[in-house]
Amino acid sequence: VCCLEMTTKRKIIGRLVPCRCFRGEEEIVSVLDYSHCGLQQVPKEVFNFERTLEELYLDANQIEELPKQLFNCQALRKLSIPDNDLSSLPTTIASLVNLKELDISKNGIQDFPENIKCCKCLTIIEASVNPVSK
Question: Which CATH fold topology does 1-9+27-133 show?
Fold first, then answer.
């Protein structure tokens, strides 16, 4: 079981195994941190919180592809996926209309999808150490 740091609106902070019923009620999780967990894909547990998730940290893993379901996380404001094995950003990134910060540094990304401009709130893109040509 990989470590997971969750922050809820009720300020529960710590390393927890994802469980939506550990207090007899659904937790409202806004931050998930899966950094340095040796992951090859985005954990499915992330999608349990797609309505409330605001920040997702997947730093320093071996993720090669972002799943389509990730782009259903409409409340997502910060997506941090540096130091992974991504070669491209999917066009579905345009559906993250509330995204403000995107960190894709230290990957293999060569270009940005044209429709990233649909992310009207996006103010910070960290894309250093990528072979970006476009």
Answer: 3.80.10
DSSP strand pairing (29-33 vs 13-15): unpaired
Let me know if 23 is exposed, middle or buried by CB neighbors in 10 A (0-12, 13-18, 19+): exposed
Q: Which two tokens stand for residue 96?
A: 């993250």
H or E element at residue 55: strand 55-57
Tokens of 63: 């993720």
* pTM of the complete model: 0.82
CA distances from 7 to 22, 29, 37, 84 (A): 14, 6, 18, 23
Cα–Cα distances (Å) from 6 to 9, 45, 74, 93, 120, in that order, read 10, 11, 18, 23, 27
**Contacts (Cβ under 8 Å, ≥6 apart) of 52:** 9, 28, 29, 30, 75
pLDDT of residue 75: 96
89: exposed, middle or buried (Cβ count in 10 Å: 0-12, 13-18, 19+): buried
Give me the residue label for tokens 């409330």. Answer: 52
Query: What's the pLDDT tens digit per position in 33-68?
Result: 999 999 999 999 999 999 999 999 999 999 999 999
